[in-house]
Design goal:
280 residues, two-stranded parallel sheet, four-stranded antiparallel β-sheet, elongated, 12 helices, 6 strands, alpha+beta
């Protein structure tokens, strides 16, 4: 698509308010085809606009462009061998906060990592390593379970969790996981029904960590008891590390359930589209 001049863009955008449905649809299609580069222009147009109907049309168009960009980025992430967890969580975050920069999340995570790293000593035993991570995350930074607003979409937005220091099981586990992996510690996510936990796993050592309960340590037998309590048959997946794709998908499923609970039909549909990208 040829690049349009500002004058041509102005003319196109003004037609968003046209009473003819076909004209309006054609204009929207044309602007969407121009891609993300047109977003700053549309946002400026929205600020200068005094027509509420036209403002609403521009808002919807900007959201469509941003959502298209998110879908493309998520597909690229899925097809990338690395599937970096922080990048995946940043992408989910941009669903609610499209202007959030990856570098901001990265800087905040690096600060947490640095605090943990400076508390580490050489040749620590596994349980001692976990004890130090627990101390920094839950005592120094005061991360804790968001039990009051468990179903809030903020629990699935890493930027919100880093700011409020409150999250759900998977968001708290992800912060823990990102720090541990940067330290080179063999800690991984475990995707349990109704709960997300971590495992410390080497050839010789194996135990589990519940970041939603301040990093309490437990055993494989405890997981079996938990499953029995829920009347769920044990599966190998419930004891083993999961992939970053599984973690990102679980974040999205949580968001889907949240929006469903609040009756946000359009958002549940969009989250379904994002989940479908990871499952394709």
């Amino acid at each position: 698509m040829d690049k349009l001049t500002d004058k041509e863009l102005h003319a196109l955008v003004s037609l968003l308010d046209d009473s003819d449905w076909e004209v309006k649809t054609h204009v929207k299609d044309r602007l969407v085809a121009l891609g993300q580069e047109v977003i700053p222009f549309l946002e400026k147009k929205w600020e200068d606009c005094f027509n509420p109907e036209l403002q609403r049309e521009i808002e919807e168009l900007v959201h469509t462009l941003q959502f298209t960009q998110l879908k493309n980025r998520l597909l690229n992430w899925k097809n990338n061998k690395e599937q970096d967890l922080l990048t995946g969580l940043w992408l989910i975050n941009t669903y609610q906060y499209p202007d959030l920069e990856f570098k901001k999340l990265q800087a905040e995570m690096n600060q947490i990592y640095f605090e943990v790293w400076t508390a580490f000593k050489n040749d620590l035993q596994p349980y001692e390593q976990v004890k130090i991570i627990n101390s920094i995350l839950f005592n120094h930074f005061k991360f804790s379970a968001n039990t009051k607003n468990f179903h809030s979409p903020a629990n699935s937005m890493l930027s919100n969790v880093l700011e409020s220091k409150k999250g759900n099981p998977i968001s708290l586990c992800s912060i823990y996981l990102l720090v541990a992996q940067k330290l080179g510690i063999p800690i991984y996510g475990v995707n349990l029904p109704n709960l997300f936990i971590l495992t410390y796993k080497t050839e010789d050592v194996r135990f589990y960590i519940n970041a939603f309960n301040k990093g309490v340590v437990f055993t494989k037998k405890d997981i079996s008891n938990y499953l029995e309590h829920l009347n769920i048959a044990p599966q190998d997946d419930f004891y083993e590390p999961c992939t970053n794709t599984v973690i990102v998908k679980r974040f999205l499923r949580n968001l889907y359930l949240t929006f469903e609970k609040f009756g946000e039909v359009d958002k549940t549909q969009e989250i379904k589209e994002l989940i479908a990208i990871l499952e394709s």
